[in-house]
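pinned: reference chain
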Amino acid sequence: MAKRPGFDRGELERIFRRVEIQDQVLDAISKPYEAKPWYQYRKLFVTEARIQGGLTFWSNNTAALADASRRFGVAPEIIVAILGIETSYGQNSGHYRVIDALSTLTFAYPKRAEFFRKELEAFLVLSRQEGLDPLAPKGSYAGAMGMPQFMPSSYLSLAIDLDGDHKRNIWSNPADAIGSVANYFSHNGWRSGEPVAFPATVDGDRYQRLLSKDLHPGHTIAQLRSLGARPTNASLSASTKAKLLALEGENGPEYWLTLQNFYAITRYNHSPLYAMAAHQLSRELVGRRSPK
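pinned: its structure tokens
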């Protein structure tokens, strides 16, 4: 870092002398929520508290959500759902110093040291750009920051100033957090106005060849039907591309056909459990705002 313009070796050494390697960070990253079965994972995130919190957040930030949706083509309910799952709408954005978390994972977690070293470098860059004391910001055990839990590299490339105050404040400015999530989804393939996923039924055993870890929608509905996987929504075009997903329910597998927008959610967090929780929370929010 000292070789980069604007960085001083002595200042960097002063900062890193105050960094603490955190055993709690190593414990947390070894026990991710995504290791749970779907029926347990869902209960953690699609809750009445998050639904009610989301309705309040939506009501309080209607203008910013409408602006972000208009500019980036991303549905407001998915923006709200992401912020709800990540930090309960900003109520819990993490208690670890970001520099401690990233340093711990860079220097004491060899499995992903290269990834976190790059994020640590990005954090130092953004701290300088934004005039932040690098020892001050707090975030998750993985170094994710603010209401949307952006990693530093995502902040540098995709965080935006939605409200025009010349700051990209994803920590305490809901408008910037909303706009940044919308920008992230726009850059990762969200298709405006399209659905996310539909329940499916299966028969025979040929559908099992479709159950790969690759979440990209790579088969048409017609192909999926020919292999025994059928959407419950009859309006889907035969040429629409989808992915068959099996989730572990309490009473056996749940089958879903997931579309491009589901895949876009997995660019935010690669777990299909996360993406499905975000989708289902978003549908709950829409349903409560517009009761039948």
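why pinned: DSSP finds 13 helices and seven strands in the chain. Residues 113-130 form the longest helix (18 residues).
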